């Protein structure tokens, strides 16, 4: 029964991601990295990911090729060398989209490193689970900082060094919160019914879907705090 439910939700996640990706091709995002982030969000938010995208992130077809210039002149302001979107979203939605941005990098890092951890049997202190978690954190951190760095470089006058520093400031706390939520759930799953971290098991990826949703939830307050402090900006 668990395997059936796992296949069902993984299939729904893939379908949601593909539907969003198809729509993003027709309606490119003002911030290019979100063209990747929204489909990735669909992977761990089956069906709900489409609702979030349609309500908070979908661009109009007519904006293609002109969105960025329009936003810079009418919908954004430049502060400390960075261009930030205002938009008409309520604050909770801006924080939500910022959390998906963080989640996109974390998810890609986890997806890339999980098979590597299983294939190599990488362990730390004699624990394959700890080894898996450490590899996942490294991968998530690299992708997460990259997801912050690219838009900072594209939408501000910051040089490479300052953009990297700003990306690290903006992503570190939210990434730790995201990964911590994931790890707590995966530990519960391992000791409850999964048994081991096997990235070639359908149950593993179903548990990862749930873990990513929990990680998103635990990263939301961190993103809110970062935005309140002006370290990160609502999207």
Describe the secondary-structure layout.
Blueprint: H1 2-26, H2 34-44, H3 48-56, H4 67-75, E1 76-79, E2 82-85, H5 91-120, H6 128-155, H7 160-194, H8 202-228
Antiparallel strand pairs: 1-2
Helix pairs in contact: 1-2, 1-3, 1-8, 2-3, 2-5, 5-6, 5-7, 5-8, 6-7, 7-8
Query: What form results from the Cα inertia axes?
Result: globular
Biggest sheet features: 2 strands, antiparallel
> What proportion of the residues is helical, as a percent range?
over 70%
Low-confidence stretches: 63-86
SS class: mainly alpha
Sheet-strand content, in percent, reads under 5%
Q: Biggest sheet, strands in spatial order?
A: 1-2
Task: Return the average pLDDT rounded to an integer.
Answer: 87
Helices and strands, in order, run as HHHHEEHHHH
Pfam family, one: DUF4396
Organism: Chromohalobacter israelensis (strain ATCC BAA-138 / DSM 3043 / CIP 106854 / NCIMB 13768 / 1H11) (Chromohalobacter salexigens)
InterPro entries: DUF4396
Keywords: Membrane, Transmembrane, Transmembrane helix
């Amino acid at each position: 029964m668990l395997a059936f439910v796992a296949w069902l939700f993984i299939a729904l996640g893939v379908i949601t991601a593909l539907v969003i990706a198809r729509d993003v091709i027709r309606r490119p995002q003002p911030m290019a990295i979100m063209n990747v982030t929204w489909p990735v969000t669909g992977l761990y938010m089956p069906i709900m990911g489409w609702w979030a995208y349609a309500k908070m992130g979908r661009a109009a077809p007519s904006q293609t090729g002109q969105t960025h210039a329009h936003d810079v002149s009418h919908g954004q302001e430049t502060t400390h060398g960075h261009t930030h979107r205002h938009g008409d979203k309520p604050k909770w939605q801006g924080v939500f989209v910022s959390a998906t941005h963080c989640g996109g990098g974390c998810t890609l890092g986890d997806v890339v490193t999980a098979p590597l951890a299983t294939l190599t049997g990488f362990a730390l202190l004699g624990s394959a689970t700890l080894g898996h978690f450490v590899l996942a954190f490294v991968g998530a951190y690299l992708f997460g900082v990259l997801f912050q760095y690219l838009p900072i470089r594209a939408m501000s006058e910051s040089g490479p060094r300052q953009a990297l520093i700003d990306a690290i400031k903006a992503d570190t706390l939210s990434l730790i919160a995201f990964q911590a939520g994931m790890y707590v759930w995966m530990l519960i799953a391992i000791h409850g019914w999964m048994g081991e971290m096997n990235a070639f098991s359908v149950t593993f990826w179903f548990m990862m879907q749930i873990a990513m949703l929990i990680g998103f939830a635990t990263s939301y307050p961190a993103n809110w705090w970062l935005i309140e402090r002006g370290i990160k900006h609502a999207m």
